[in-house]
Design brief:
By secondary structure, the protein is of the alpha+beta class. The protein has two domains: 32 residues; 69 residues, Copper binding periplasmic protein CusF (OB fold (Dihydrolipoamide Acetyltransferase, E2P)). It contains one helix and five strands.
Length: 116
């Protein structure tokens, strides 16, 4: 009888530990900041002017208008890019149209083009 009680108690502890691990993993997943696709029409381009480029550091400073998708007022700030080729045709003083997004807490230009 005593060994049956120990076996049942051990099985219960293993089950509780497994459930706790699943809950912890689910909570970690729900708190992680993920990049999610925007609904149709949300990919509007914003307008700005390049004030500085640092191609080696993959950074561009923009003076921009309101960024509706980020709920951000007009200002001058630094954005990152993932590919230096996106900055190759650009120079300080160029007017641009762009899409900025916050990915894992960092502001990136996900699309940039010279304004017509």
């Amino acid at each position: 009888m005593k060994s049956l009680f120990i076996t049942l108690a051990a099985g219960l502890l293993v089950g509780v530990g497994s459930a706790a691990a699943q809950t912890t993993n689910a909570a970690a997943d729900s708190h992680a900041e993920h990049h999610t696709p925007q609904p149709p029409g949300a990919a509007e381009l914003s307008e700005g002017e390049i004030t500085r480029l640092d191609v080696q550091a993959l950074k561009v400073t923009l003076r921009h208008g309101e960024l509706k998708n980020l709920d951000m007022p007009p200002m001058t700030m630094v954005f990152r890019v993932k590919d230096a080729a996106a900055l190759a045709p650009l120079k300080a003083g160029d007017k641009v149209r762009f899409r900025a997004e916050r990915i894992n807490g960092v502001f990136y230009l996900t699309q940039v083009e010279k304004a017509p």
